[in-house]
Specification:
The complex is a heterodimer. By secondary structure, chain A is of the alpha+beta class. Chain A contains six helices and seven strands; from the N terminus they run ααααααβββββββ. Among the domains of chain A are: 5-53, no CATH class; 161-252, Immunoglobulin-like, CATH 2.60.40. Chain B is an all-alpha fold. Chain B has two domains: 1-83, RNA polymerase sigma factor, region 2, helix turn helix motif (Rna Polymerase Sigma Factor, Chain: A, Orthogonal Bundle); 87-156, Orthogonal Bundle (Arc Repressor Mutant, subunit A), CATH 1.10.10.10. Chain B is built from seven helices and no strands. Classes of the chains: A alpha+beta, B mainly alpha.
Chain lengths: 254, 156
């Protein structure tokens, strides 16, 4: 309002609805451009609302409530009596046809979505079964309490043995060792993937348990490497990037 | 709508009864205001304040129209009301009512009279001036100052 004091009293009269003539026209024109005076007008109406409260206390008779509810029930339709007219009001048949099309479209969409959901549920159930089986296999292979038995020719003394199962396309490797002597102090065994070309690739560090058993499951490997052989060396506890001779175990694919 | 009616009908009815002095006419205004709201709930812009003051102003304006036997002059969509105290709850309104009555009681009699004639009787400043014999400018000033006094009482 600051700077517009000339409108101050007329704003109060406008809020009361008693400003007429040129004064009203001038002020209404000014209000279109002046947010500050519009806010002041709203505040003056708020002041008038406060003044209304000085009368509060009279409750309408209960019949007024019933009368209102009856009148509302008699109203044909809220939208029909609303002051806003929509472009389709004069052509209700068109609106009905459009609505019917929307209903058909929505029904089709609904049916398609239901089919998609059913298919996804079926896939999820299959994947759940496969995941469970994979989990069981890995658990069995890696369980610390698993009984690991290496069968050798009768009367032959048990020998250190390692089995590597490698799937190149998935870069997936499982290695199971048995009858391994304990690694020297502050040393560990390291498994190497020997590719058909290039340097050996580290494929996991391990220490056998008290029974000489150890497993390495899916060590980080570059993808798609063709393996010529697997080897084991003795390395520092945290492994090496290049093998330290000698090779203590070696095996090539059949 | 029934819930809104139960909460705010007394506000609408009281102000209409004060303006019109007739229970039947006040009931008609009450009915008209709530039917209008039911027919077009978008009339009230909830972002600009709560419903009670808006209904009070709408009810007063419509009652003055009825008193003067004229068609509604103001488009209710254009009536925006901004007020400081929250009047949504019964307790809030009761506290505000007590405060308003106290402020009005403390006002100079001439100022309070000018305010009430303008608001509840719908008299223009010219009509008040003619009725009281006071200059037009004095009447205008009293009305505005009276309203600002009410506002100030709720700002502290």
């Amino acid at each position: 309002m600051s700077g517009h004091e000339q409108f101050a009293e007329d704003l109060a009269l406008l809020a009361l609805g008693s400003l007429q003539g040129d004064g009203r026209q001038t002020l209404e024109k000014h209000l279109q451009e002046c947010a500050s005076c519009r806010r002041e007008l709203e505040s003056l109406r708020g002041d008038l609302a406060l003044l209304s409260l000085s009368t509060a206390g009279s409750k309408p008779p209960s019949r007024s409530r019933e009368r209102l509810i009856t009148a509302i029930a008699r109203e044909p339709r809220r939208a029909a009596s609303a002051p806003r007219r929509f472009w389709w009001t004069p052509v209700p048949w068109f609106a009905a046809a459009a609505l019917a099309l929307v209903v058909v479209f929505m029904a089709r969409q609904n049916s398609a979505l239901r089919q998609q959901i059913a298919a996804m549920q079926s896939d999820a159930a299959t994947q759940q079964v496969e995941l469970q089986r994979a989990h069981e296999i890995v658990s069995t292979l890696t369980a610390s309490d698993a009984l690991r038995v290496t069968l050798v020719a009768a009367k032959a003394p048990p020998q250190p043995q390692g089995k590597a199962i490698y799937v190149r396309d998935r870069s997936s490797l499982i290695f199971i060792a048995s009858n391994m002597p304990a690694a020297p102090s502050q040393k560990a065994y390291e498994l190497w993937l020997i590719p058909t070309s290039g340097a050996p690739i580290p494929a996991g560090v391990f220490k056998p348990d008290a029974h000489g058993s150890a497993t390495v499951v899916n060590p980080p490997l570059p993808s798609g490497v063709e393996a010529k052989a697997f080897a084991i060396t003795i390395e520092p506890e945290y492994g090496s990037t290049t093998p330290t001779m000698p090779i203590v175990m070696l095996g090539s694919g059949e | 709508m029934a819930e809104l009616y139960d909460r705010y009908s007394a506000v609408v009815y009281s102000v209409s009864l004060r303006v019109l002095g007739d229970t039947g006419a006040a009931e008609d205004v009450l009915q008209e205001v709530f039917l209008q709201l039911w027919r077009n709930p978008d009339l009230f812009d909830a972002s600009r304040g709560n419903l009670a003051p808006w209904l009070a102003v709408i009810a007063r304006n419509r009652s003055i129209d009825v008193l003067r036997k004229r068609r509604p002059e103001t488009d209710v969509e254009d009536v925006l009301v901004s007020v400081e105290p929250d009047m949504a709850g019964d307790a809030d309104r009761a506290m505000a009512m007590t405060k308003v009555r106290t402020v009005l009681g403390d006002m100079p009699a001439a100022q309070r009279s000018a305010l009430e004639m303008a608001y509840f009787e719908g008299l223009s400043h010219s009509e008040i001036s003619a009725k009281t014999g006071e200059p037009l400018g004095t009447v205008k000033t009293r009305i505005r100052t009276g309203l600002l006094t009410l506002r100030k009482a709720f700002e502290t």
